[in-house]
Amino acid sequence: MSKKIIQQQQRLLNLIQLLLILLLLFLHLLQLQQLFQLLLLLRLLRLLLQLLLQLLLQLLLLLLLQLLLQLLLLLLLLLLLLLLLLLHYYYYYYYYYYYYYYYYYYYYY
User: Fold this and answer.
1) If 0-12 CB within 10 Å is exposed, 13-18 middle and 19+ buried, where does residue 78 land?
2) Which helix H or strand E contains 13, and what residues bound it?
3) Is the Cα torsion angle 101, 104, 108, 109 positive or negative in sign?
4) Largest CA distance in the chain
5) Portion of the chain with pLDDT greater than 70, in percent
6) Which among 31, 35, 32 has a CA at the least distance from the CA of 43?
7) How far apart are alpha carbons 59 and 48 in whole angstroms?
8) Which positions, given as ranges, span the membrane (predicted)?
9) What contacts 38, CB < 8 A, 6 or more positions away?
10) Spatial distance between the Cα atoms of 54 and 57, rounded to a whole number of angstroms
11) Distance between CA 71 and CA 77 in Å, rounded?
């Protein structure tokens, strides 16, 4: 009789050990699932950072393009002003010599 009780207790202990092992396995699986979720979140974060970096680079490119266009407009304006200045001096000297020529011509002849 006592042998049967000892066997039952041994079976009960084995069952408890098995349940504990299953519980530990379940906890490890949960930890693995959390690790996989963490890896997934890290991947998502990396993709989001890449997207943000691409957007920032595009914004920087647009700003540089805008700056380049402004510089080109400024250069065009400066060239136009230079052209006006050259025309002004051209006509100024042209009329000056014209006036000098006729003045000299009428005065001395």
Assistant:
1) exposed
2) helix 2-108
3) positive
4) 159
5) 89
6) 35
7) 16
8) 12-32, 44-65, 72-92
9) none
10) 5
11) 10
- The reply to whether the predicted model has a pTM over 0.85 is no
Q: How far is CA 4 from the centre of its chain?
A: 75
| Dist CA 40 CA 53 (whole Å) | 20
DSSP label at 1? -
Average pLDDT of the segment spanning 70-88 = 96
- Rounded to whole angstroms, the Cα distance separating 93 from 102 reads 14
Q: Which residue has the tokens 């065009």?
A: 76
Confidence class for position 105, pLDDT limits 50, 70, 90: low
C-alpha–C-alpha distance, residues 33 and 89, integer Å: 83
**Which tokens belong to 45?**
């974060």
